[in-house]
Amino acid sequence: QCLKSCGYIDQLRDATVVLHGLARHRLWRDALDFLSDMVGLNLEADVICFNVAISACERAGAWQQALTMIDDMGALALSVDVVGYNSAISACGRCSQWERAVQLLQGMRVVLVKPEVISYNAVISALENAQQWKLALDLIAVMKDFHIAPDTVSFNAAISACEKAKQWQQSLALLGELERLQQEPDVI
């Protein structure tokens, strides 16, 4: 309230800047509190504000809060976009919640949000950390089915998932495919 009464926040744009600052410093609780307080400031939070709050949760590894924000957006009739989904997927992946990351990716198509290569990469990275190499390979195939070209990040995460699970033949096959696509593997 002080921010508005002191004349610091008069517009949604100003509120978004404050949220970005909180997110950048991983102050996710403060970002969520500020988002909640925006109602008292007579500022209606939009998709961008929620995306920034979800990103703050992602940076701090607060995956449950990121999922709550996704639910809150639906309750406010705000459509979650690819940016919000990507942040929530990354939050889940960082916290070993690979099943939730997969569910979010699947849920995107249900609500007609088209996943991007970043969306798939976030899930493949979550699968890599969980040593779910078969699912990582499946996602590479799904990407191709949906005409989304896997990039170096996609392949490196899948190769690493195979390596962690001691599936060296699969790693070599992926490396060969990466080279055929004329992409440079980086250090894994």
Can you give a write-up of this model?
This protein is mostly helical. The chain is 70% helix and 0% strand. Helix 5 runs antiparallel to helix 6 and helix 7 runs antiparallel to helix 8. The N terminus is likely disordered.
Summarize the structure.
By secondary structure, this protein is mainly α.
Report the order of strands and helices.
HHHHHHHHHHH
DSSP strand count: 0
Q: Which shape, going by the Cα principal axes?
A: elongated
Give the class from helix and strand content and strand pairing.
mainly alpha
- The amount of helix comes to over 70%
Distinct helical segment count: 11
Low-confidence segments, given as residue ranges, are 1-8
Straight-line N-to-C gap: 49 Å
Round the mean pLDDT to the nearest integer and report it. Answer: 87
Entry keywords:
188 residues, mainly alpha, 11 helices
Task: Itemize the secondary structure elements and their pairings.
Elements: H1 2-5, H2 12-24, H3 28-37, H4 47-60, H5 63-75, H6 82-94, H7 98-110, H8 117-129, H9 133-145, H10 152-164, H11 168-180
Helix pairs in contact: 2-3, 2-4, 3-4, 4-5, 4-6, 5-6, 6-7, 6-8, 7-8, 8-9, 8-10, 9-10, 10-11
